[in-house]
Specification:
- There is one protein chain.
- By secondary structure, the chain is of the alpha/beta class.
- The protein has one domain (14-270): TIM Barrel (Alpha-Beta Barrel).
- The chain has 8 helices and 13 strands.
- It has helices at residues 25-42, 68-82, 96-100, 116-124, 142-155, 182-188, 219-229, 258-269; strands at 14-18, 46-49, 86-89, 105-108, 129-132, 163-167, 170-171, 177-178, 194-197, 203-204, 213-214, 233-239, 253-254.
- Strands 1-2-3-4-5-6-9-12 form an 8-stranded parallel beta barrel, surrounded by 6 helices. A two-stranded antiparallel sheet has the order 7-8. Strands 10-11 form a two-stranded antiparallel ribbon.
- Helix 1 (25-42) links the parallel strand 1 and strand 2 (46-49).
- The longest helix is centred in the first third of the chain and has 18 residues, at 25-42.
- The radius of gyration is 17 Å and the shape is globular.
- The model has no long low-confidence stretch (mean pLDDT 96).
- Pathway: Bacterial outer membrane biogenesis; lipopolysaccharide biosynthesis; Carbohydrate biosynthesis; 3-deoxy-D-manno-octulosonate biosynthesis; 3-deoxy-D-manno-octulosonate from D-ribulose 5-phosphate: step 2/3.
- One of its GO terms (molecular function) is 3-deoxy-8-phosphooctulonate synthase activity.
- It is found in: Cytoplasm.
- It is an enzyme of class 2 (transferase).
Length: 272
């Protein structure tokens, strides 16, 4: 069951977490089961996230995933065996219908925040949608994106559209991102729940030439700061061994370190 996306004062945020990409069924099930236990221990609503395709890899040699058919099969199994709601990315409007049949929540990638057809198709599906703010967009720009999504949902007859806006850092020169915490406040004032993507915000896009790098040591301080500012949800990619992950390893949180980090987040959330 999906949580309430608007966080009540003093309550914990919802957590979107999982590996960057579906590497294998066994790994996804293992990570999801651990996340389920962490969520139960901390009274933290968890949504399992994994991508069936990473369509925006830096290099053609980067691992993209196993494709939509296999990816949806794995996500459906995770949902059935763990009871966790599941989320995945959609990159094209014609993927939306098939994906929405299986997952509980859709996500649109940051690079595609200005792709009107994709945003509107996702919102019209009736599923909750997490819209990532593009690295090249200012927070106020997301009002227009939110307007597109809300209009599409209304036109499709969606009774209670649940559209979230997600901060994942802004381009700062070459191969670097920064987070302006004012943006979280600005987007929350638009009336939509706001999610902070703590792991992609420490990415160094293209920093490795044919791949992106990352600074995972800054995930915790940024997540703590975002929670103190006031967000409704957190997004964190996690992996048992990030250094061997097939995608985005440098900015992922080691799974074994996640409980301690989340305990700090829950404590901060209780204060605001």
């Amino acid at each position: 069951m999906l949580p309430s996306f608007h966080r009540a004062p003093g309550s914990p945020p919802f957590l979107i977490a999982g590996p960057c990409v579906i590497e294998s069924e066994a790994m996804c099930l293992s990570i999801a089961e651990r996340l389920r236990k962490i969520g139960a221990e901390l009274d933290l609503p968890v949504i399992f996230k994994a991508s069936f395709d990473k369509a925006n890899r830096t290099s053609v040699s980067g691992f993209r995933g196993h494709g939509i058919e296999e990816g949806l099969r794995v996500l459906e199994k995770v949902r059935h065996e763990t009871g966790l709601p599941v989320l995945t990315d959609v990159h094209l409007p014609d993927q939306v219908a098939a994906v929405a049949e299986v997952v509980d929540m859709l996500q649109t990638p940051a690079f595609l925040a200005r792709q009107t057809d994709l945003i509107m198709a996702a919102a019209a599906s009736g599923r909750p949608v997490n819209i990532k703010k593009a690295q090249f967009m200012a927070p106020p720009d997301m009002a227009a994106v939110l307007g597109k999504a809300q209009a599409a949902a209304e036109n499709a007859g969606v009774a209670d559209p649940q559209i979230m806006l997600c901060e994942r850092g802004s381009t700062f020169g070459y191969n670097n991102l920064v987070v302006d915490m004012r943006g979280l406040v600005i987007m929350r004032e638009m009336g939509a729940p706001v999610v902070f993507d703590a792991t992609h915000s420490v990415q160094l896009p293209g920093g490795g030439g044919d791949r992106s790098l990352g600074q995972r040591q800054f995930v915790e301080p940024l997540a703590r700061a975002a929670m103190a500012v006031g967000v409704d949800g957190l997004f964190m990619e996690t992996h048992p061994d990030p250094d061997s992950a097939l995608s985005d390893g440098p900015n992922m949180v080691p799974l074994a370190e996640l409980p301690a980090l989340l305990r700090k987040i829950v404590a901060i959330a209780a204060l605001n």
